[in-house]
Amino acid sequence: MAATLHDVARVAGVSFKTVSNVINNHPHVRDTTRSKVEKAIAELGYRPNLTARSLRSGQTGAITLALPQLSLPYFAELADAVIEAAAKHGLVVLIEQTGADRKRELEVMASPRLKMSDGLIFSPLALGQEDADLIKADVPIVLLGERIFGSSSDHVTMQNVTAARAATEHLLDLGRKRIAVVGAHEGEVIGSAGLRLRGYREALESRGIPYDDGLVAYVVDWHRSNGAAAMHDLLDRGATFDAVFGLNDTLAQGAVRVLQEAGFRVPDDVAVIGFDDLDETRYTLPTLSTVDPGRTEIAETAIRMLMERIKEPNGMPPREIETAFQVVARESTGASDQA
Amino acid sequence: MAATLHDVARVAGVSFKTVSNVINNHPHVRDTTRSKVEKAIAELGYRPNLTARSLRSGQTGAITLALPQLSLPYFAELADAVIEAAAKHGLVVLIEQTGADRKRELEVMASPRLKMSDGLIFSPLALGQEDADLIKADVPIVLLGERIFGSSSDHVTMQNVTAARAATEHLLDLGRKRIAVVGAHEGEVIGSAGLRLRGYREALESRGIPYDDGLVAYVVDWHRSNGAAAMHDLLDRGATFDAVFGLNDTLAQGAVRVLQEAGFRVPDDVAVIGFDDLDETRYTLPTLSTVDPGRTEIAETAIRMLMERIKEPNGMPPREIETAFQVVARESTGASDQA
DNA sequence: TGCGGGCGATGCAACGTTGTAAAATATTCG
DNA sequence: CGAATATTTTACAACGTTGCATCGCCCGCA
Fold this sequence. Notes:
The structure is a homodimer. In chain A, helix 10 links the parallel strand 8 and strand 9. In chain A, the strands form three sheets. In chain A, strands 2-1-3-4-5-11 form a six-stranded parallel beta sheet, sandwiched between helices. A four-stranded parallel beta sheet of chain A has the order 7-6-8-9, sandwiched between helices. Chain A folds into three domains: 5-48, Orthogonal Bundle (434 Repressor (Amino-terminal Domain)); 62-156 and 294-323, Rossmann fold; 160-293 and 328-333, Response regulator (Rossmann fold, 3-Layer(aba) Sandwich). In chain A, helix 9 (224-236) packs across helix 10. By secondary structure, chain A is α/β, with parallel strands linked by helices. Chain A has helices at 5-12, 16-23, 31-44, 50-57, 73-88, 102-110, 160-173, 192-206, 224-236, 249-261, 295-311; strands at 62-67, 92-97, 120-122, 141-144, 154-158, 179-184, 216-218, 243-246, 271-273, 290-292, 320-323, 326-328. Chain A contains eleven helices and twelve strands. The interface between A and B is large, with 51 and 51 residues. Chain A binds a DNA duplex through helix 2 and helix 4.
């Protein structure tokens, strides 16, 4: 059995409370006492029981990160960033996978499990704007992503519209005129797909190019296979284009694959840009131009907001923060190799 | 403040222990009492405090998964599998990233944090065989991977040697004779690289083909860029080969990229096989042949062993389990598209 | 000499839960 | 109807920690 404060106290010949005082370095402990206690701690290999400390203090030192699935590269990289950001503040991260399932997304917020952590960073994929009122739990929440705005929780999001517009303008700046879109969601207005499509349209508009729905390929999911299928779809229906905006990197990769199979050269015949700046976009052939949505900043901002909210749950009204983005030009839009 | 057993008891007009009995559905609770209590629970929205329960029971319902980094796709998919396997048993997963740093790998096992979970699934990348004795903690450990054998902990590993041999034989069966290896580690004997290289050599030997060190490219890390660099290295030194065994998928992808840039057709000029069966290998051009190391089985076995060990810490001597693998033939070794 | 004040150490209670044992109540049977 | 027994409820302690209040001591100062 592990040693407790009492065991240490017995060995050191002091009261267990004094041991506690040493551990929490209270000011009024004599040096001789302190070293006696420290010796006993070392001798017994005492480690504080964090569960007991949690019960007493009401804080666990952990946060929950709820996301759809780690095998989706975007979320894996997001999780990486969140864990690193949390570690900087001494917090540990518990991960819940929702599988983009509405029921599980709601369960995460309702589960008593959640109270084993001090707060929740939540990236929903099934819940949408109409569920804004359901975003609540026994712990503070920071919401990530573009699916829900104006909930009562803090919210960190990337600048989808502006960034998508910049990505499209990057293609336009290359002289491309007919830009296909891969990965739109039928009828979506907010949500990553809807917002990025809006950015695309704004860019066209600003250059006086009419929007052509024939250049937009719709999908249900944002997996690699969907990007491939969408590109097949475009080619099958005889669409002609000299550039492609993949609404995320995996879609763009799927599209590139199909383009190459079909004999198109990227970027010569068709320039392609994605979105997310996944690590792997640096190593595809050609390397994939993309938009860096500021993942590290998203993670750090989310952690910071969550910690503030944990400290003062009602300190301020819900905040909504947009992070800085950057267009990253690589080979797929004609930039020279930079891998 | 959240409601406690006492609050519920007050509302229901019973003792708080009776409420506890209802929650843990003890046999001897009268139906009328039970419903009275349930009504009060619903009315107050009572949720049990899991921290207090943990303190009392000594179990947390969480496990820790320590791995190098989630942004490495292999570990992201491993984490996904572990979380799903854990969820099936009602366990939640806390993730620690070690960054393949020796110091942090040791810290994970020493940290009092670890005791906020019931056990550790540990996939080291810095610690090696010589550290077998350092694999110990206050909770049961299940070790993953190929770096450390014969420690005092349970261990789940893939069949590296046999699987690598099968992968090499797959290339030999295609009639390829000169098979390059991308990703060897200088001087390594055990560890994924060493074991897989051994499987490669065994395959050659069994067909009477001499081992040629000129066909082996060494790397330090297993990132995509290393695979690319290694292939550059092979080409630069004038190596000739008709097949490549990438010791993992990301290395193979990097190698494929360089091969294609250099004008080689894959698989016609050079057949390529990887290792790990990452999801993304299904969507590259060409799709990548690989070895499925049985990730789901690894995860489920690890969870099962850990739970057994948690239930009975000294129930049995350390076990070492190897999971089943499967060679997956895709386009990069001439199989027809199956994406 | 007496007293206030700072220091150092301690004791007690509490965080919210569950196990054990005992008490209270209901049921059965002679 | 009373005793024996079965059922239901309760009281108390404990898990290991920290906050609060207390207590004794030594010192300096009047």
